[in-house]
Amino acid sequence: MRILVTNDDGIEAPGLDVLQQIASELSEDVWVVAPETDQSGAAHSLTLHEPLRLRQLSERTYAVKGTPTDCVIMCVRHILHDQTPDLVLSGVNAGHNIADDVTYSGTIAGAIEGTLLGIPSIALSQAVNYDKRGEVHWQTPMAHGPALVRKLIGTGWPADIMLNLNFPDCEPDAVTGIEVTAQGKRDQDYLRIVDRTDARGKPYYWLGFNRQLSEPEKGTDLWALRNGAISVTPLYLNLTHVETCRKLMLDLGGETV
Ligand code: MN
């Protein structure tokens, strides 16, 4: 089995080493193609206005000056040519990718691109409590990741679906189980603008994140992580909401545009 490992935290990120180790427990044929710099929040973007610089670090490790999506395309279409990977693993991200994070996440985008190229793909993220800085429980995906990924490959999943895995912010032994979940929804005031002033008195801004306030709905990714479980969410790449589609067809059916 040929595995492509990518991420959005960049080629230097500790989570990339963790995922490389997870992958090497599943196969000896592991390729790493990751962004030169941190691409968190890059979503499923392509680099179209700059050249894509490719830097080879070892026989099977490359850095791309681009996004996670660029990395997957670079690997499949250029580095490996016709020897397509059998599995794309993206992560392990430092910080969860759940609920509203899904459409912002570069980690998930790496797996989306793999799926679009016809390769089974999994995104992996490790929840981090940012109040306790520097303490990332990398042992948790290390301990639980290989068996879980192996089990998922054995089970299989449809071609237009990707799997989004999130590990809870706790020690491996404290993990309460594995929950198959739905994408959750955060309170609406989650994202905010942090207003600052620079040394010359001019205003500048950062995007800030408020804490989750309310109790998450049972069966969601938010709920699983809050309860110390590993969350497995199958995500469908076709964003059409079928029920609303049907209703609109009925409601607008008589109209001619
Ligand atoms: Mn990231």
How many E-type strands? 11
Write the H/E string, N to C: EHEEEHEHEHEEEEHEH
- Low confidence ranges: none
Report strand %.
25-35%
Task: Give the distinct bound molecules.
Answer: manganese (II) ion
Biggest pleated-sheet summary? 9 strands, mixed
Indicate the radius of gyration in whole angstroms: 19 Å
**What gross morphology would you assign?**
globular
- Structural category: alpha/beta
How helix-rich are the residues, as a percent range?
Answer: 25-40%
Number of helical segments?
A: 6
Distance between the termini: 51 Å
Biggest β-sheet: strands ordered side by side in the sheet? 3-4-2-1-5-6-7-11-8
Average pLDDT, all residues:
95
Architecture overview:
- Helix 1 (14-26) crosses helix 4.
- Helix 3 (106-116) links the parallel strand 5 (87-94) and strand 6 (121-126).
- The protein has helices spanning 14-26, 68-79, 106-116, 139-155, 221-226, 242-252, and strands at residues 2-6, 29-35, 54-58, 61-64, 87-94, 121-126, 161-167, 177-180, 191-197, 203-209, 229-236.
- The mean pLDDT is 95.
- The chain is an alpha/beta fold.
- The protein has 6 helices and 11 strands.
- Residues 8-9, 40, 93, 106-107 line the site of manganese (II) ion.
